[in-house]
Amino acid sequence: MHKTRYNALSVAFQISPRGPLLIKAGGISANPTLPDMQFVRTYHPEKGETVYIPGSSLKGVVRGFVEKALRTLDDHTSWQWACPTFPDEDESCAKKLGKEENSATIYKNSCGACRLFGHTRLKGRVAFTDLLPVDEVKTEIRYGVAISRLSHAVAHGPFEMEVAVAGTFEGYLILENFELWQLGLLVLAFQGMNSGLLQIGFGKNRGFGEVAVQVQEARLDEVTSGMEIGLWRGLADFVSDEEKTRYGLSTTFTLNGMPDPLRTEPLGLYTRRIYDPKRWDEVAQRVTDKLGTT
């Protein structure tokens, strides 16, 4: 299925901390002025050395949220279930399908989370780019200690934590050859961040990690053949009945009468529909409403 490209969605979004936010860097920095737990940094050709949110960190948090939701449904007759977290567990998709060579069989027998995010035998449908600062990110030093449960005295510390308290990070979510329920799960995760149910980074039990997510623009590319402005098509709408059966694609999740895009752009074999934040909010609401009825 990855040898073709039927539909692709690129969502530009921004994340702003609502409180202290810390994405910890691994190892120890050579810079002696940085605290014990410093915010992860990278080098950008225009911004120089800067704090940022790795796309892999955000993807992991979103996957964990989606897995919890799917385990709550736990319907093994469809995509509405999630396998165990660790790939070496016997019931994990990666372990069960480790020797399978047929890509259609691997996809069909994988859980909903693995169909979306992938596993060691299956490439995921979604990717998150690194989120870089839009403008200056304000950081400050917080102090913490570890308390002994036996003596109730300080066991370790004090230690320093560098947290972001203001500013905005921007990046992209890219979804390719996707089923519409997969988009619905990602929208649900973004809503979870905005409602405070999903925190990111270190120190969630300390009150860290609450963020606000704002979509800036969404671009949907679809094969021009059969395209209708108000119709969003999932992967099953592009392939033959035989392929639907082989891959176990959902045929019940369709979205018609969707909001008109801000504008459209012809891209040869594809047509691009562009949505501003207001129109995207309408799209997201329609997707989550449909998700609740499947």
List keywords for this structure.
294 residues, alpha+beta, seven-stranded antiparallel β-sheet, two-stranded antiparallel ribbon, 7 helices, 13 strands, 28% strand, globular
Written description of the protein model:
By secondary structure, the protein is an alpha+beta fold. The chain has one domain (5-290). Helices cover 25% and strands 28% of the residues. The strands form four sheets. Strands 1, 6, 7, 10, 11, 12 and 13 form a seven-stranded antiparallel sheet that branches. Strands 2-3 form a two-stranded antiparallel sheet. Helix 5 (180-195) crosses helix 7 (277-291). The longest helix is centred in the first third of the chain and has 19 residues, at 55-73. The chain is globular. InterPro entries: CRISPR_Csm3_endoribonuclease, RAMP_III_fam.
Number of strands: 13
Number of domains: 1
Helix content: 10-25%
Distance between the ends: 24 Å
User: Major β-sheet, in short?
Assistant: 7 strands, antiparallel
Written as H for each helix and E for each strand, in order along the chain, the element string is EEEHHHHEEEEEEEHEHEEH
Which strand-content bin applies to the residues? 25-35%
Structural class by sheet pairing and helices = alpha+beta
Provide the low-confidence segments as ranges. Answer: none
CA gyration radius, whole angstroms: 21 Å
Contiguous helical run count: 7
On the 0 to 100 scale, the average pLDDT is 91
Give the overall shape: globular
Pfam families: RAMPs (PF03787)
Keywords: Antiviral defense
GO biological process, one term: defense response to virus
Organism: Chloroflexus aurantiacus (strain ATCC 29366 / DSM 635 / J-10-fl)
